[in-house]
Amino acid sequence: MAESPLSVKLVKASILLLDTVNASIVKVVPLQYNPETLSRSLQVRSGGGEGGPQGDARRLSGPPVETYTVEAVWDATDRVSSQSVNDSVIGDLSVFETILYPESQSMMDNHALADLGAWNIIPVQKPLTVFSWGNNRVMPVRITSFSVTEEAFDNALNPVRARISLGMQVLTVEELGHDSIGGTLYMAYQKQKEGLASAQTSGVLGLQGNEILSEIV
What we know:
Layout: E1 14-19, E2 24-30, E3 38-46, E4 60-75, H1 90-98, H2 104-115, E5 128-132, E6 138-153, E7 159-170, H3 173-176, H4 181-199, H5 207-216
Antiparallel strand pairs: 1-2, 1-5, 3-4, 4-7, 5-6, 6-7
């Protein structure tokens, strides 16, 4: 049966894990339902300080510190009822949670190296986390907070409904560098913002505003 031309293809908000060595996608973790709200904030990186040269107040040392917070819901009530954990949301939650954990094998390897007297234990490096919120906002991020409220359980006490709150900081070229895959991804994100902004038509000042500016200049 052909798809109706009037049907809307839903774009899923997702977390992607990216291997920065070969730029391959390790895993895509779509949110089960797109959140109804998204909170974000931008903190300016100012290039000027008190007592600096005149004009420094307009200087920027880099992109702003941008943070996102999303509230998402996971619900397994529409899955086939059985005693399997696959009918709960514990697997979905574990996918998100393990993004924040170093792999257990790497931890054991580092422990073994420490026992052998290795003096330089390199912290475990995870794939780059990417947040995708539609085609216009795909950005490298660091997950800064993750909290879960489990609301209902099956007979084996596996959660069947849960709410998560996910806090993220956008990683810019300040953190990733210009020559990295993550830095390239960030610059594409910023250029997308600039393109959207330039496409907007400029507003027009009212008569009084024009008169004030003409007197100043």
